[in-house]
Each structure stands twice: as C-alpha cells, then as structure tokens.
Predict the structure.
Amino acid sequence: QARVEQLPLVDGCADAIVSSYVLEHLDEQQVVPSLREMARVLRPGGVTLHCFDLHTESPFYRWARRQSCRE
C-alpha cells in the first residue's frame, strides 16, 4: 500500500496510470500533489485513465470545476 501523493516508484516507470474512483475521495489539499505524483511516475508519452463520480460535491469535483473555469 502507498499514499497516492508518495508513490514508491521511480520517475517515468509507468506506461499507464489508472485511477478508478480514487480522486473524488481525496481531500482538496491532496488533489494537486496526487496528480503531480502520478505525472512523475508516468513515462513520457504514457497514458492516464481516471474514472470518477461527477455527481458529488467532493473536493475533487470542486477542484475540477475551478480548473475548467480558468481563463
């Protein structure tokens, strides 16, 4: 087991990252560090797949809404 903000993996070692209903359970302070950590372990040209519930008022949902409203 590991925390999503501190994955025990070396940089660029993953061909793909799959998170299945994880992001909506993070505290708002965990969202950006977790996404950065996923990006760190993903190899250049790698693929990410995130499944999450948008019918909630979770911290991730609020964070994602703010990102989509930026200019």
User: Anything to note?
Assistant: The longest strand covers residues 42-51.
